[in-house]
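Sequence in, structure out.
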Amino acid sequence: MTARRIGLVGLGTISRYYLRAIERSPDWELAGVCDVRAAALGPHLSRATGYLDHRDMFQTADLDAVVITAPNDAHALVCRDALRAGVPVCVEKPLAVTLEEGRALANAAAGGPVLFTAFHRRYNDNVLALAERARGRGRIESITVRYLERIEEHLGGDTWYLDPVRCGGGCVADNGPNAFDLVRLFLGEVEVRDAAITRDSSGADRQAVVRLRSATGVPATVALDWSHPGETKDVEIEFADGGVLRADMLAGHEGFKTSLWHEYEGILAAFGAALDGAHVDGGLAALELVTDTYRAERADTGPLEPGARAGTAVPGTERSR
């Protein structure tokens, strides 16, 4: 099969994982790169044509698909323009920063080009092994997903993460979709029951504990932290027989962020399968859970003042890697 021609919009911290995955795959050929910073294009011009405006790339690059790794607040605009140009999209989570934007994108993609949201943790080898071990084990009694890190260590030059408007909020808006997607991977559809959130002086949420429940009544807890010493990312499942299974997403991947290399290869493989017709997307569902988390916080506690602490501590913050 001829390699598909793919473009990449946004050359920030996450782009390098896509670039290497494209380079390592025979199924993809990098055809264009786009960033508003001309200097960011330079290192890639030997492999692909560079663009300062994504619309120029969509009009001239003859793309089979595009990956969008621009800042969160640009996702909706770039996705919309790609879909209008007839270009299938793989967009980094979150799908958009507002539910209204996400629904508009889902409607625009209905019956048209593929709109695929990238949740890299669902391709983590330890998560996949957990899913295999859990299959046939019996009824799940509860699930806990922990996604704890110090965000400043993960930014690279992408300081927009710390702007609650550009990010969409904070740890709930940005890390929440990955954690919620893992809960959905094991339980199917879930709803938010309550949430406790801690914000910093800028209004960005730094910590959150979100309790969810599946359609069959199975409880789940998602713990998020942007002020955690080190990095702890895991899934724990308790079964009705009293057994417990756990996946540490970082185990076996020594070194900072090294687990992402194989996860982003998984994203591109799944995106290719989506283009071939095997497409089920959870981007809108995750965005709905983010929105419901913020709503639950307001309903349960009223709006938190900047820097105020919600009453529930993040479980397991004493453990780190």
